[in-house]
């Protein structure tokens, strides 16, 4: 896995080139130009050309550059990969695969990318992220997560997943009636478990009501508690919220530093655990603290 921040992944329709400059400057960890659901069939080819131009001509700053290709079962997917990589591969960091159902879907993209990179002499490996947004994909999430060494993250795609499951939800994917607990907890948890099996990141679903930043933050914090490392954004206003939620707080960093220091002192005197402010700290706590400090260091480098 590459050490890339994915606190915020901003979706931008590749057809809407008037949005590109704002997207490039909004501070998202990753921006992906979408060739799939947000682009009407009649302008798929035209939008692909706009994405290629944007990858080559726009200064994306610190944001990773990605495209979401059309589904493997469509007539556009093959050309999406070949044309974008051939014409803009040097400026492309990640390809996002939608609606993955089985591990072989990831394998197919991996093989084609390998051939293109060899043919074009690219001095880099283009990475992959995969959307889990079909019930079959969720059932096969563990196999999908380990299908390619290119794979850096699984994304929970709640929109198409709602349709695939037949869930009765509103346009913000909230259940149309009383439901005990978190409606999407099972799917979210299965995606994060699959990602952790593979040692990769998990990115939470989009939140369509982009004017409701409090609701977006609530969703983001719930996913972060499960272990998600970032969230999809469908509007630049959501980016700063995601970046804050998925960054360690000053208090978390201070506690991590205190726990590591106390444990090292105890370790030097032959003890394998120590009390810190009345709470036991052992080797497991140290590993958790080190993960917090490593993430903070990654953010500071960015």
CATH superfamily grouping of the largest domain: Phosphoenolpyruvate-binding domains
The CATH class of the largest domain is: Alpha Beta
Question: Strands of the largest sheet, in order across it?
Answer: 1-2-3-4-5-6-7-8
CATH fold-level assignment of the largest domain: TIM Barrel
Q: Helix- and strand-based class?
A: alpha/beta
Work out the strand percent.
15-25%
Radius of gyration: 20 Å
Spans where pLDDT lies below 50 across 5 or more residues: none
How is the topology of this model organized?
Layout: E1 8-13, H1 20-24, E2 30-34, H2 44-57, E3 64-68, H3 77-88, E4 94-97, H4 103-120, E5 127-132, H5 135-139, H6 141-145, E6 151-156, H7 158-165, H8 185-198, E7 201-204, H9 213-226, E8 230-233, H10 239-245, H11 250-268, E9 274-276, E10 279-281, H12 283-301
Parallel strand pairs: 1-2, 1-8, 2-3, 3-4, 4-5, 5-6, 6-7, 7-8
Antiparallel strand pairs: 9-10
Description:
With 302 residues, the protein is α/β, with parallel strands linked by helices. It has two domains: 8-246, Phosphoenolpyruvate-binding domains (TIM Barrel, Alpha-Beta Barrel); 250-300, no CATH class. The protein is built from twelve helices and ten strands. It has helices at residues 20-24, 44-57, 77-88, 103-120, 135-139, 141-145, 158-165, 185-198, 213-226, 239-245, 250-268, 283-301; strands at residues 8-13, 30-34, 64-68, 94-97, 127-132, 151-156, 201-204, 230-233, 274-276, 279-281. The strands form two sheets. Strands 1-2-3-4-5-6-7-8 form an eight-stranded parallel barrel, surrounded by five helices. Strand 4, helix 4 (103-120) and strand 5 (127-132) form a beta-alpha-beta unit. It is globular. The protein starts with 7 loop residues before the first strand and ends with a helix. 42% of the residues are buried. The mean pLDDT is 94. Its EC number is 4.1.3.24. Mg(2+) binds at residues 133, 160. This is L-malyl-CoA/beta-methylmalyl-CoA lyase.
